[in-house]
Design goal:
homodimer, alpha/beta, eight-stranded mixed beta sheet, two-stranded antiparallel ribbon, 11 strands, 37% helix, 21% strand, globular
Chain lengths: 222, 222
């Protein structure tokens, strides 16, 4: 299995590449500049000696083409629309996993949602219904992903309008050793994406006994 | 200390009354019908023999008047606006704790937010800035609250525009033995309230090993 991670040279993308590679999944790491992706891929592979999965660097379009089905969009929100526009014609038969959070410019403690309501909904509207968009992995911090000596240890909320696509994404994410939950249609991305700035707020406050918080679904009988 | 719980005869209100009473806090239990509130208060006190707090039944307006500062609004969303209108003139110097979730009519797996964005924001707009509104306790199930043999065991996200009021509410809720977190201004209620239907969705699905889920802020180092 080979997945693409676009914007894969950012901290979130690198952390995901490391985690998936260690789980035995090949990664086509995409960047605007192929050379930068190649350099970073080399470094990541060195960190993971003995991993069953291999990380290879590409420009974003070539990364999509190198993947067999799953394409993770991990660019900053400012590049969300332009990246989607650049790859929409080559996404046929793929699933777009959108992990982008529309953080407010200059204030990571707030969202500034697009007119569609959320990044996931904006992506689905831009790509059209024939390309399933699944929102996921918004609430896992890059630091957590990159701390390979620790389990991720928080849950992943997965939303989107296409149930088979969501189930495939849940199966993929579960390979990272985390619980992934189907929390409903794409409209729920308005909530899921907005959890991230609340976590960022907690992390930068002095009121919590931890940093890099995520969330967990929890119950008295769990 | 005596708090009011409006709509206190519903399952959420009863569970909160039991929990606060057991924590040594007196409760003015409000209902549209004083007689019904009185009957239910009697039953709740019997369940809690030896509790330091006492529960007394009132009509909603009298419950507000009997409270010293904190007024919890626990009515169904359909009664949210009318209840607020009926008490707005007697809320001076009180804090309104809004726990109402605008669940979609006929579908508890979705929200149907008011034009203000969330119930908390609608309440704040209706009451005016001189009455602080704090959103809290949306994500704790009534079953959990009423299961007195179990700890609540999930976290409470608290939001609102008035920091001193939020801190008072956090102090109050902490007495139930839960972690309560300030997650930002009232606008974040759009997210916090919308978590509830996602939890309801998980609870009614067959895909999770539990019922009555809540959420927890969680981190690798927690």
């Amino acid at each position: 299995m080979k997945i693409a991670i676009l914007g894969g040279t950012g901290p979130q993308g690198q952390g995901l590449a490391l985690r998936f590679s260690r789980a035995g999944i090949d990664v086509a790491l995409g960047s605007r500049e192929a050379g930068r992706a190649e350099d970073i891929a080399t470094g990541l592979n060195q960190k993971l000696e003995g991993a069953k999965g291999h990380i290879e660097g590409f420009d974003n379009l070539s990364a999509v083409e190198a993947s067999d089905e799953m394409v993770i969009l991990a660019v900053p929100y400012s590049a969300h629309e332009s990246t989607l526009n650049s790859i929409r014609d080559i996404l046929t038969d793929k699933v777009l996993i959108d992990i982008v959070v529309p953080l407010k410019d200059g204030d990571p403690k707030a969202v500034d949602m697009p007119k569609e309501g959320s990044a996931t909904e904006a992506a689905q509207a831009l790509l059209g219904d024939h390309i399933p968009v699944v929102g996921a992995l918004h609430n896992v911090s890059a630091t957590t992903l990159n701390s390979l000596n620790k389990a991720i240890n928080c849950d992943v909320l997965v939303c989107g309008n296409d149930l088979p696509a969501k189930n495939k994404v849940i199966e993929l994410i579960t390979q990272l050793g985390v619980q992934a939950y189907n929390v409903g249609p794409a409209v729920n991305a308005r909530c899921v994406e907005a959890i991230t700035p609340m976590l960022i707020r907690l992390n930068i406050s002095k009121k919590v006994p931890f940093s890099h918080a995520g969330i967990k679904i929890w119950a008295p009988d769990s």
